[in-house]
Amino acid sequence: MDNSRELEACRLRYHDLQLRYNEAVSEFQDRVSTLEAQLAATSSFGVIVPPDAARRKADLESQLAQSQSDLQVA
Predict the structure, then answer these.
(1) What is the pTM of this model?
(2) Which of 33, 59, 61, 72 is deepest in the core (most CB within 10 A)?
């Protein structure tokens, strides 16, 4: 009986972690999309994008890819 309660608690915790993880992935996707839009807008106006911004975008894309990979493994 005690094991079944522990198992249910683990299932609930796992479900909660999945939800939080999905929210984090969604936030990363939103941030990457925003940066892509900003970079596209500045490029269309001939504005030079600072290397810092381009590096940040690449970092976010890398984090997003890792998050998606981790999610598929889970």
Answers:
(1) 0.57
(2) 61
Mark 33-64 as b/e (b = at least 16 C-beta within 10 Å). Answer: eebeeeeeeeeeeeeeeeeeeeeebeebbeeb
How many other CB atoms sit within 10 Å of the CB of residue 21? 14
CA-to-CA distance for 61 and 68, rounded, in angstroms? 10
Q: How far apart are CA 64 and CA 58, in angstroms?
A: 10
pLDDT digits (tens, 9 = 90+) for 25-60: 998 888 888 888 877 777 777 766 677 877 887 887
Question: Contact at 8 Å (CB) between 35 and 53?
Answer: yes
Please tell me the distance from the alpha carbon of residue 7 to that of residue 36, in angstroms, as a whole number. 43
Quote the distance between the C-alpha of residue 71 and its chain's center.
Answer: 10
